[in-house]
Amino acid sequence: MSNTVETLALSRCFGDITAVDGVSLAVRPGEIFGLIGPNGAGKSTLIKMLTTLLPPSSGTARVAGYDVVRQPAQVRRCIGYVPQLLSADGELTGYENLLLSARLYLIPRGERKQRIGAALAMMGLSEVRDRLVRGYSGGMIRRLEIAQSTLHRPQVIFMDEPTVGLDPSGRHAVWNHVAELRRETGAALVVTTHLMDEAETLCDRIAVLHAGRIAAEGTPAELKAAVGPGATLDDAFERLTGGTIGHEGGYSDVRQTRRGTIAHS
Amino acid sequence: MTSDRPGAAPSPIPDRPPSRPIPLRVADYWTQVFAVADAEIRKLRHDPWELATRAIQPVLWLVLFGNVMARVRGLASGGIPYLDFLAPGILAQSVLFVAIFYGISAIWERDLGVLHRYMVSPAPRSALVVGKALSSSVRGLSQAIVIYVCAAVIGVKLSLDPAHFVVVVLLIVLGSGLFSTFSLIIACIVKTRERFMGIGQVLTMPIFFASNAIYPIDLMPQWLKVVSRLNPLSYEVDGLRAMMLQGGASTLGLGRDFAALTLASAIVTVIATRMYPRMTE
Question: pLDDT digits over B87-111, tens only?
Fold first, then answer.
């Protein structure tokens, strides 16, 4: 069976800086694939290329069998995307946000109501569907965005730091829903994170990204075993990237999260 | 609307049959355009205060500026009272002012991540641009209602012919779409809200004053006459003047007004379709 996502020597430069440097990876159908790395490792740049938002400088990438540069329209039909920023429109209700997506993805008129209702139910948002999203908590907005990204039944869903800025209960709710999402839809998931517990809880396989390159790839167990018995994923990460992950997050995380909060407050 | 279609790509894709171009169906295209515009209408319904505050400026222009300038005898306005001459100009002006700052909301949407959601969707980029343009038209039309009421109150002899109303609506939709898409292009160039605020003012005034909105083109020095004939706003005002007033007449020709506005809209739409997707990079 062919891979859902496949990249070959994928690179992207911004001026002198090489944000993603020759990344080759494969995501299999139906698996949850984690991209972990410190801030600035190139995770978001990689996701942007795979979602057709950013053209690569060199290399190739195929998503659902389509080339991201030559066949962006086909790629877009097959993917869902949950961006790092809280992107649901705060001035619309949850239902209206989903209706917008359903129309953009050309879900047949007769199926829209039912599919929106099912997506809201799966994410536990049926009660608040007619409330303006600016009154939602961060975790609810995330779940709404996940619902939005699944309406058109994509083969692969990209989630860029899905739990940044959420409190622990919001984070666990998102994890539970992501796991359920995979069970229900069978879609592959590509998740970026810099939280080791998130990677370990969610992911079948992990690629560690460091300075734009893949430093290691494997199941969480394999990555830990490579360091030694009793090692944690943190230890593995430290070994691979030569430093700790920095749990407090960088300036850009704080800024982006606050932006989202302000916009929805 | 063709930029997304990879039909011409000759290189084979190994493990999938040669790329089948996605057929562009007109009904689908309009569904996507309408999706974007409808989201905007729903936002306005949730918060109509924005429309109310935007209505203040044109009312002030008509009531304060208009009433004073009506006393200036030298302002030949083609045989009609100055307030009648002014009302369509102020309508065009408020459509312009609302539309020209549209780029700010595009930058805002980019900063929030809303734009990313639009851009990962399979909607043709031009459908997103046209949808945004129509959203702006909705705001422009709401301005028209306020200005019609205000003009009627101050005694402007408005045409009540339904056919004229239809043409006025078309002119506003075209004008709003044109200037908001122009604004979108500027947003793609300047990229930040702060810079846009500065440049927005600089753009509005020349477009407004180098037009026939508040005085006839005949009064202008020769060089400004040339500029005003190249200014799309002049065509919008001219068309509105013919259709809004009882016995109103076009000096440039209604057909030419529509041709000029349509051509300008087509040009900015093509440019914006190329530039808009790059905002997420």
Answer: 999 999 999 999 998 999 999 999 9
| Average pLDDT of chain A, as a whole number | 88
Edge-first strand order for the sheet with A213-218 is A79-82, A156-160, A188-193, A32-36, A205-210, A213-218
| pLDDT tens-digit readout, A72-111 | 999 999 999 998 888 899 999 999 999 999 999 999 999 9
For B211, the 3-state DSSP assignment is: coil
Assess contact for B239 and B250: CB atoms under 8 A. yes
Buried b (16+ CB within 10 A) or exposed e, A73-111: bbbbbbbbbbbbbbbbbbbbbbbbbbbbbbbbbbbeeee
Instruction: Report pLDDT digits (tens) over A17-57.
Output: 999 999 999 999 999 999 998 888 899 999 999 999 999 99
For residues B182 and B175, the answer to whether their CB atoms sit within 8 Å is: no
Q: The domain containing residue A13 runs over which residues?
A: 5-264
Query: Is residue B15 pLDDT above 80, yes or no?
Result: no
Q: Which pTM does this prediction carry?
A: 0.86
Residue B251 burial by Cβ neighbours in a 10 Å radius (0-12, 13-18, 19+): middle
CATH number at residue A20: 3.40.50.300
pLDDT at A263 over 60: no
Give the nearest chain A residue to B113 (CA atoms). Answer: A87
Q: Which residue of A has its CA nearest to B39?
A: A100
Q: What is the total count of domains within chain A?
A: 1
- Does the beta carbon of A179 lie under 8 angstroms from any beta carbon of chain B? no
Q: For B27, name the nearest residue in chain A, comparing CA atoms only.
A: A106
CA dihedral A72, A75, A76, A79 (to 10 degrees): -150
Structure tokens at B202: 């600089």
Domains of chain B, residue spans: 26-280
pLDDT of B9: 39
CB-CB under 8 Å, A77 with B6:
no
Residue type, B132: K
Chain A residues 135-174 within an 8 A CB cutoff of chain B = 148
